[in-house]
Amino acid sequence: MHSCAQSLTIGVHGGISVPQLSSKSGNEISEGYKSRLGPVAGIFFDYGLGKQVALRAMINFAGQGGKRTGMQPVTDVPEQLAAMLPTGTKLYANFNNESVLDYLEIPLMLNLEWGIGFHYYLNAGPYVGFLLSAKQKTSGSSMFYFDKNQTQPLTFNGQPLPAQSFDATTDVKDDLRTVNIGITGGGGISYELTKIHLLLLDVRAAYGLIPVQKDTGMNGESNTGGLYFSLGYAYRIHR
User: Fold this and answer.
1) What's the pTM?
2) Which of 134, 157, 166, 179 is most buried, judged by most C-beta within 10 A?
3) What are the pLDDT digits (tens) for 75-116?
4) Quick one: CA dihedral 46, 47, 50, 54, positive or negative?
């Protein structure tokens, strides 16, 4: 946004978050999640350090998480059913599972810009994220199985247990870390409507360096990450 020494610009932005939970822990409880869509919105401040260099600070609401469908381990077995099974029994079922994580993220990035009229920029830096809410949303119905291949159904009195509903929303915030630290960066285009009013298109990627789970031995290790696409408006306070 045509950074000048000692310039100060404030803006707002909003758009779509395309997050994903990635896992390499080998624990099937945390693996197999794909991207979901969520919101991203916030405010940002650019402080000019030179003609083409600025420091950008942001305060964002960012939707994170992921979704998984099909055969998968059941992590919340109904109490009455669990009481009938040996401790540690693992069950599988075919249902929809969405992890909805909402964060307050604060990136601090170095911004490099060039161009006249239309300005192009690249930026990168660290961020800290604070977990606001965490919910596991499940849906669908399925029988229970002792294996992923559905060859060993759970039986009751010699008969397969009928399909059970998985329609539920569970608060899982207590199972997750409340603070994350990561790296972020991207680029975009800004356009000067006037000397003090600007529009911008921003694309940014982020990756959390700390696994979100508290108990990684039990629940595996997942890292947040994804892409943010947003439109914004900025006002140059002084230049």
Assistant:
1) 0.91
2) 134
3) 888 888 888 888 889 999 999 999 999 999 999 999 999 988
4) negative
Q: Residues in the chain, how many?
A: 239
pLDDT at position 239 is 64
CB neighbours of 32 closer than 8 A, spacing ≥ 6?
68, 72
Residue linked to tokens 């759970």: 154
Give the pLDDT confidence score for residue 181 in this predicted structure. Answer: 98
